[in-house]
Amino acid sequence: MCEKVIAVAFDDGKPFSIVTVSGKRGFSFYDVDYCKRDKTLYYHLSGFGSAPYGIEIEGCGEYWLADGYRLGRYTKRQKRPRLETLDAKWQCWPFEWGIKSDTVYCKICKDRLPTSETETPCQHIHWSVRKSWWAGRGVCD
What does DSSP assign to residue 76? Predict the structure, then answer.
């Protein structure tokens, strides 16, 4: 699978949202979370499809967009600074700078924690078979 990174939104100097494009699937949208405990970036595929009205990217800080692509209306309204160049490490696919995993936010730890290899990301959160979702004191309602 050959995907090309075409958009990256940053928050606090770290990628927050990434858009790639490939001939087979069209656009792929990835969420990226930083785990303070692990000092690691975790990413997961959050959606895919077409972007007929421009690329909508989430995040709070600056962004980079590949030549030949345009931002969607929602992103344009946010008026964030655009980066002219992008460090090569953020352009590689597969993403060698992070680990593929969903995350869950713990409001007690104040951190986004990986969930792919555990049923208890921290002492405040556990997997609930009954709810088929995360439960515990740390889960945001």
Answer: H
Domain coordinates in residue numbering, the chain: 4-100, 103-135
Q: φ, ψ for residue 125 (rounded to 5)?
A: -135, 140
Give mean pLDDT, residues 118-140: 93
Placement of tokens 């515990």 in the chain: 136
Task: Quote the strand ranges of the chain, DSSP E.
Answer: 4-11, 14-22, 26-35, 40-49, 63-65, 99-100, 103-106, 111-114, 126-128, 133-135
Long-range CB contact pairs, 69-76, < 8 A, 24+: 69/6, 69/7
pLDDT in tens, 77-112: 677 788 899 999 998 888 999 999 999 999 999 999
Token pair 């692509």 in the structure block, residue:
69
